[in-house]
Specification:
The structure is a single chain. The protein is α+β, with helices and mostly antiparallel strands. The protein is built from eleven helices and 18 strands. The strands form six sheets. Strands 1, 2, 3, 4, 5, 8, 9 and 12 form an eight-stranded antiparallel beta sheet that branches. A hairpin with a 2-residue loop joins strand 10 and strand 11. The longest helix is centred in the C-terminal third of the chain and has 21 residues.
Length: 387
């Protein structure tokens, strides 16, 4: 799915557009036991409650593609005869089937790790008359040639009651009262099937994780029965370690700075182009950046081979997951330097009297703990050029 397709679906979760008529679910306590079940009609609720339910379901479609929202890919065998795929297919078309809902609840609660928190599982299905998109890229709501049937699931932690002061108008007084159990924004969720090319892709689902560093791989394994993908932090760790280990002494400050800058430029160009397709980067392209930075062919080839081994053959890298385009940091055991990425080229490395230094230009205003200070020429080493 790309960003435009995702946005199109997210707009469905409004009272004037949603085709969701009922919401199902169950309340699971901290011991992993279902204590109550939900089967409610949105049309019979007050408007405020309808909006709350739709908001919780919509939250499972928020975040960044490739980071919070991860593609789940089924094998051909799973699509043809997999029990897990058959269950999801059943629910997207017949969510009123109680036995199918219970089967999904059990798959989730048998695998999910929510710590000591109780949680709420919410399920809903929608049938979207996909409007025709004209040559001018405008949607024609009155023209549709297909219906996209999908299932959305949100798994929301429950906050324990807290005591707070509340104002009682009839008494003109404040009294302590409990907030009761409160449903938080989803921690995990998914959409099935994926909405690729504005049509159903039964070979894919979109999995949501509020925290990219904790993608709840146990849920992916329990519900989809596929190998969990790398989380965004894992992708960065693998990239950093591979770069350092395979380049060895060639992994200099200048090389890392140059690669970071080239990847950052790709991210900025993609953002400015407003291309809805997610940006990816091949291992070969990163290898070319290394060659341009003066890294020997042998180390570059070792880098490529290790990336393919770690990420998978022909698996593209997600630039936003392997660098932080908004930050550039240099750390030593004693000092941390943060500089805006566009000015990272200003930092220099130098050896003075046998010691290694990082040189930071200080031509303009210099402050120490908010206090403006001066740097005189007498304070600079003779070997260090002024300016």
């Amino acid at each position: 799915m790309n960003q435009k397709e995702l946005n199109e679906l997210r707009r469905r979760f409004r009272l004037d557009r949603s085709g969701i008529s009922r919401v199902y679910g169950c309340y699971v306590n901290s011991a992993g036991e279902i204590v109550s079940r939900i089967d409610v009609s949105l049309g019979l609720m007050p408007q405020e409650e309808q909006e709350m339910y739709l908001k919780l379901l919509k939250k499972s479609l928020t975040g960044t593609l490739g980071k919070n929202l991860i593609d789940i890919e089924f094998s051909t065998q799973q699509v043809m005869e997999g029990e897990e795929h058959r269950l999801l297919q059943k629910l997207r078309s017949e969510i009123e089937d109680e036995e199918a809902r219970e089967a999904l609840y059990q798959r989730i609660l048998e695998h999910i790790d929510m710590g000591d928190s109780s949680y709420l599982i919410l399920l809903a299905a929608d049938a979207y008359d996909v409007p025709y998109r004209g040559r001018d890229d405008e949607l024609q709501d009155d023209v549709s040639d297909q219906v996209f049937r999908y299932l959305v699931c949100s798994i929301c932690p429950i906050k324990s009651p807290t005591l707070a002061l509340r104002y009682f108008h009839e008494e003109n007084q404040f009294h302590g009262c409990s907030t009761g159990d409160v449903v938080s924004a989803p921690e995990v969720g998914f959409l099935f099937p994926a909405f690729d090319d504005r049509t159903a892709n039964l070979y894919n689902a979109l999995f949501y994780s509020k925290n990219p560093a904790q993608i709840h791989q146990e849920v992916i394994d329990g519900v989809f029965c596929v190998e969990p993908p790398m989380s965004a932090p894992e992708q960065k760790d693998v990239f950093d370690n591979t770069l350092s280990d395979t380049l060895g002494s060639a992994c200099s400050y200048d090389v890392v700075q140059a690669v970071h800058e080239q990847i950052r430029e790709r991210i900025l160009e993609h953002k400015e182009s407003k291309d809805p397709e997610p940006l990816d980067l091949s291992v070969s392209e990163v290898g070319a950046m290394l060659l341009d930075s003066g890294v020997p062919d042998q180390q570059v080839e070792e880098f490529r081979q290790e990336c393919r081994r770690q990420y998978g053959e022909d698996v593209p890298l997600v630039p936003a997951n392997i660098i932080d385009s908004k930050k550039f940091e240099i750390c030593t055991p004693e000092v941390k330097i943060s500089v805006s990425p566009e000015h990272s080229y200003l930092i220099e490395t130098r050896i003075i009297d046998g010691r290694k230094y990082l040189l930071v230009p200080a031509d303009g205003v210099v402050e120490v703990n908010g206090i403006g200070v001066t740097i005189s020429e007498e304070q600079l080493p003779a070997e260090c050029p002024v300016g």
